[in-house]
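Our collaborator T.R. sent over the components below with a one-line note: 'Predict the complex.' Nothing else. No constraints on interfaces, no templates requested, no preferences about which chain binds where. So this is a plain run: every listed entity goes in together, and whatever single assembly comes back becomes the starting point for the next discussion.
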Amino acid sequence: MPRLVFTPQNKEIEVETGTNLLQAADQAGLYIEGDCAGKGTCGKCRVKIVKGDPGNPTKAEKKHLSEKELAEGWALSCQKKVKEDLTVEVPVQKEAHLRKTTLAGGVEDLEAEPVVEKIAVKLSRPAVKDQTADLERLLKQLDREDLTIKLRELSGFPGMLRNNNYTVTAAIAGNRIISIEPGDTSDQLFGIAFDIGTTTIMGSLLDLQKAEVIAVTATTNPQNIYGADVISRINHASEGKHELKQLQDKVIEAANEIIKDLLKQTKIARDRVYEIIAVGNTTMSHLFMGVDPTYLAPAPFIPAYSRALEVEASELGLDINPAGRVTFLPNIAGYVGSDTLGVILATEMDKRTSNCAAIDIGTNGELVLAANGRLMACSTAAGPAFEGAQIKQGMRASAGAVEAVQFIDSDFVIDTIDDAPAIGICGSGLIDSAAALVDAGLIDKTGRLINPEDNPDQAPDKFKKRIKQGDNGLEFILVPGSDSETGEDIVLSQGDLRELQLAKGAIYAGLKILLKEAEVKEEDLDEVLLAGAFGNYVRKESALTIGLLPRLAPEKITAVGNAAGDGSRMALASKSIRERAFALPGKVEHLELSTRQDFQEIFVDALKYGQ
Amino acid sequence: MPRLVFTPQNKEIEVETGTNLLQAADQAGLYIEGDCAGKGTCGKCRVKIVKGDPGNPTKAEKKHLSEKELAEGWALSCQKKVKEDLTVEVPVQKEAHLRKTTLAGGVEDLEAEPVVEKIAVKLSRPAVKDQTADLERLLKQLDREDLTIKLRELSGFPGMLRNNNYTVTAAIAGNRIISIEPGDTSDQLFGIAFDIGTTTIMGSLLDLQKAEVIAVTATTNPQNIYGADVISRINHASEGKHELKQLQDKVIEAANEIIKDLLKQTKIARDRVYEIIAVGNTTMSHLFMGVDPTYLAPAPFIPAYSRALEVEASELGLDINPAGRVTFLPNIAGYVGSDTLGVILATEMDKRTSNCAAIDIGTNGELVLAANGRLMACSTAAGPAFEGAQIKQGMRASAGAVEAVQFIDSDFVIDTIDDAPAIGICGSGLIDSAAALVDAGLIDKTGRLINPEDNPDQAPDKFKKRIKQGDNGLEFILVPGSDSETGEDIVLSQGDLRELQLAKGAIYAGLKILLKEAEVKEEDLDEVLLAGAFGNYVRKESALTIGLLPRLAPEKITAVGNAAGDGSRMALASKSIRERAFALPGKVEHLELSTRQDFQEIFVDALKYGQ
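Returned assembly:
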């Protein structure tokens, strides 16, 4: 079998002849970026073959790679079938998600109200006059005769009791003893809150007795090998039990990596973690739990369940205390998941009396409106444009991404993350760029890029050097190849502007429909909350400029950070917040936009660029 | 590795050099009788080496086998270490337990009151106007929003629903959905009741909608490779987790064999069996559940638990519906298990107002007394003498066992099971023999066998030919070698009479102490119930003659069959009886005999033979 060496990770692996490099990298445990699930259409899974014959380029490679790049050994890993030994250089992904993990809020002011209780007891010694069985002795001392216990814990209990001078500690959740531990461990009580995103998975380790976040980490959702969006993943899972299991295994493995990292950071033993709370969109919930998501995809978009599912960690193979409780918060509808529910929890939308909208933009876009005593939610087919997918040089928010573009003093001011030479454009850079182009008069309300050369009356002539003809229409050069990391121009294409237009139009249309249902005028909105990492980095002014949001005063717009993740942490830290979460699906009205008669008209109206 | 062939089963196996034949037979899945766990002291694990060199006999073999037998290739399988290829003939065990399985009572007059409920529903189809999730749709239709469900069942539910025109059947126990099945299967509801004996495991398959036993089967408890009695098994389990697991694996494998056989007999699918109820002594309960039994052995004899343990079938690896409930009924004390509780249930001792005692003699002996509004229980160190262990030619109740001996018209009338040529003596034969010797005046009250030759004044001279000198004292010849299957005399030895004396004395002493505590005189006992297969076959008159029981009119004594097994079946069939079972441990006073000051005196008094 051919042998592959991946650098700089220095991973070696033997693979079957004919395996493509994307699959091989996955087998080796490496992550190569990509959005099209190996179809060769996104052109993002570039690698450089530094030893061995790269073979003839495919059509897709010719499209996405220049002659020079091909000559240097660059290839698209999804296109390259392995026939012989190769050494492959994988471009290092600067951790896009690290930015997300800095947003670990939500529990600062919470009172610790853990669901799991730890109680240390010293039992009386048995004797012929008191032959009470060990378990009964424990339950009597705890004054909890109703408790049940797993065989796993009971099995070694008699020896543990006698080896520890009859002092043990019980971890109790509801009417279940999760764990019996030797000696007094009552001061150790930990849990992990997960935010299972389509793109990024984030985990926070909490000390539940202090309601304190003590470590945070994140990783890429490795399900992306099956596609960047939820529909691709549903389609794969629909193929059969094996395929569903593949997707479940991927997310569970990633969760275990996060757990391992959190425990390593804090030197806490896995058995002292008794709870996991997870939020995510409805598809992520189904895949995490291994439940068939097939019928989420076609209308009428029916989930298998909406309530919170509570299972044992061992059932899912999650590496915390095996009897630990894993709770995925309830979803509201097929495309409004517990991540949105987390946003509602964290922003207290369910308690607000003002007219308030929350917009969570991740790989999908969900909206919530609290108005006139009602709480409504909908999802929009915003697509992952804001995370850089389907954007020609789109990338996630990592070093070298164009993240801020402003039109100041009649010129463009462009910033990249970490001030690194530009590689591509991330979500906030995309919106900023489009807004700057609106400001500069280089796009019209229909979203058409204007070439100053052809339309000297419409667009300033001084920018004619920044507009060029690309493969598919005009392109605006943000950073010339001479200044970029790749040597190529970093551009915003007409296609990119269309993608953005569809995405922002979908969100704005969703908001318009929620307002219409609630009989609230746009100008009567008291507040708009922008959730998600995206919401945190996007400039309000740009969002207003391109018409992602209604015409509101910028001070009415607030970024609330990763509110979904905050909601997860809050539900982990507080029993009463968790109970609020369980009751929420019954209080939120879900609007299904896709089948509404008025959707098309409102959507078209929402597509306009500029205000 | 040497290759062994076992005949007549024709099983072939390769084993490590040095493995003994007893272990090898176990590895091959064969059962060889034996009581001493391979110590070479019981002499019962005989096999015949028909091909290959048997090697030199060990001391133990010389003791238990005659020169002639050794010359013929007979060996003790525990003594024979394998060095080369051998063909080994294993004497067929005529199924001793088949007699036990004919006693499948307990539920004839019960009203069916199943704990698991099956409900078929036809759900309305989802639509954009009604996007209720599949699970919520089901629970709403069932009007049971409180139900929980296993991921295993939920995983494929969406597809099942749509492939079956939205008709499914739920099996519900308490607040759990055990199973969701395609279409309407509401008429299929089965459960299995187990009686886990130290020696024999019995299973009954019940149609729970009719409270009807539809198949019964039994097998030897394969834990016997680790010793015939509970103490040997506790000792083995105490050695470590691995050893405990070995014992658990044995009993679970045997239970699965029984399940397989029951399902094959009735052509019922395993997934339609939703419940298992088990009874057994406290050690069997611990080993079945895989819980450390170490502290049952030394005083103060403390079980790990006494309540009923309810677990999922999949946790134990039992081959019924994976989410099926397995309930081991509660034990009362370290040596008074749920088998005794089953006896109380079946005989309704807890409801009786008369003075009534129940005696269950199996591998151990337990007693229950209902008197003066109290319900008391104790265990006795009766040992397995009544099952033929520690008796020179003892055997279980299978073909060729001397089962009935009467002294009629001044002579002995001897019957064997199936009228087959005699091989040995079973429990009822042992008691009958002793009683007949009392009647014939051949033993005195101290249990000494009288040789008519030496004591012509005490014992009839005509029996002097039936008394001979054995290796360890006198022996009474029940069947001369000329008439026996083995060619050897079938004898009752002085040693056998002593074993019986200790066993019957222990039981009688236990009863005496219970009566003393209850302040009831022996003559005020209204009824004595004899439970267990033994109780069914023993002649009351003989039991009275040897002083196993107090001097009562024979009509006060009733054999109640396998009451422990009956109790198990009843608790399976009826929810209210099961609830009665759960409450029983709190109602039964346990007396610990072994540490009582008065025990020795009462025991010595109870040893007397004859009345």
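Summary for T.R.: Residues 58 and 79 of chain B are 7 Å apart (CA to CA).
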